[in-house]
C-alpha cells in the first residue's frame, strides 16, 4: 500500500521571520526527518499563493530558492527519498485542479474565511484580488492532489484545512471516491502534539501573529536581520503594566510571547517567571535571538546549492507524476476526459 502523506507549505514573501522559523519551519523539518521512514513527506513552497497580496515580484523567484535553502540550513535531510521539496507553480495540476474545485465552491463559503476578512480589511478595495478570495481553494488543491492525510499548519490555517475536508467530502459524495479526506484538525493536533508549533506574535502588537505581510516590519524579526537590529526590536517589544513576568496569553500576550521565544531558542523561561521587571527577560531574549541569527546566517551560507537544485528537480518530476494522476481522475469524473 502507498505510504500516507504528510504535506505542508510555507510562502516565500518578504523573507522569513523567526515566527515562521521557530513556530513552523523548524517543527516541519523535525517532523519531516522524524516521520520520513513511515510517511511520504511533501514540503513545498506555495509560490502562486505569494501574490494574493501585493509583493515585490522581482524578488519572488530568489526568495523561493532562499526559503528552500532555509529548510536545508534548518537540517532537512535531502538524501531521504521519502522527502519531497517542490515549487507549486512548477506543477501545473495545482492551478488546473483549483479551477475545477472553484466551480464546486460556494461564494458564501469563501466569504466566511476569517483570513480573507482579516487580510482584506488591511487592503484598499482595489488591491483586494479575486486570488486572495480564492486562496483556500488553491490550498485545498495543494493538499488533495497528493492525498495528504496530515497537514501540519499553524492555527491561522485551520479553517482552510476544514474547508479542504468539506470540498473533498462534497466531491466524493457527488463523484465517488476521488480524494483522500485529510484528518480532522483535532486529530492532527493529537498526532503532531508539540511538533505542531507555536504561534509567535508580533512584537509591537502581541494580539496579532508575527506576519510576513506586516509592512512596517517593526514587530517582526526577519531571519536576515542583523543581530543588532533584532536586539533593538526585542528590547522595544510591547509588554504591559502589570510588572510581573507570567505566562498568560490573555492578560500578558507580549510577555508570554517573549517567554515562548526564549524557550524555543533553548533558554529557561522559569528563570524569569515571577520577576517584577521585564528588562532582564528582554535582554536575555535579545541575546538568544542575536546568537541564533549569527549561527543561522552562518549555516545558510554553507548550504550546497547544487545538491538542493538536484533534489528540487527530482522531486518536481516525481510530484508532477503523482499530481497528474489525481488530476486525471478528477477530469474523468467531471466529464473532461473519457473513462
Ligand atoms: P504561511 O506561509 O503564511 O505560513 C506558513 C506556516 O507558518 C505558520 N505561521 C506561523 N507560525 C507561528 N508563528 C507565526 N507568527 C506564524 N506565521 C505563520 C502558518 O500557520 C503556516 O503553517 N496558506 C499557507 C501556505 C499554504 C499551505 C498549503 C500550507 C499554501 N498551501 C497547503 C499547508 C498546505 C500560508 O499562508 O502559510
Structure notes:
The protein has helices spanning 18-35, 57-73, 93-102, 107-111, 114-122, 130-144, 158-175, 185-192, 227-235, 253-264, 279-301, 305-333; strands spanning 5-9, 40-45, 83-87, 148-150. It contains 12 helices and 4 strands. The chain is globular and about 70 Å long. By secondary structure, it is mainly α. Strands 3-2-1-4 form a 4-stranded parallel β-sheet. Helix content is 51%, strand content 6%. It folds into 2 domains: 5-198 and 305-334, Rossmann fold (3-Layer(aba) Sandwich), CATH 3.40.50.620; 227-300, Tyrosyl-Transfer RNA Synthetase. The mean pLDDT is 94. α9 packs antiparallel against α11 (279-301) and α10 crosses α11. Bound molecules: tryptophanyl-5'AMP. Tryptophanyl-5'AMP binds next to β1, α1 and α6.
Q: What structural class do helix, strand and pairing data support?
A: mainly alpha
H/E topology pattern: EHEHEHHHHEHHHHHH
Helix content: 40-55%
Overall spatial form: globular
Question: Strand content of the residues, in percent?
Answer: 5-15%
On the 0 to 100 scale, the average pLDDT is 94
Largest sheet: 4 strands, parallel
Domain module tally: 2
How far do the termini sit from each other?
Answer: 24 Å
**Gyration radius, to the nearest Å?**
21 Å
Number of H- or I-type helical stretches: 12
Strand order of the largest sheet: 3-2-1-4
Count the beta strands.
4
The named CATH superfamily of the largest domain: HUPs
List low-confidence stretches. Answer: none
CATH class of the largest domain, named: Alpha Beta
> Architecture of the largest domain in CATH?
3-Layer(aba) Sandwich
The small-molecule ligands in this entry are: tryptophanyl-5'AMP
CATH topology of the largest domain: Rossmann fold
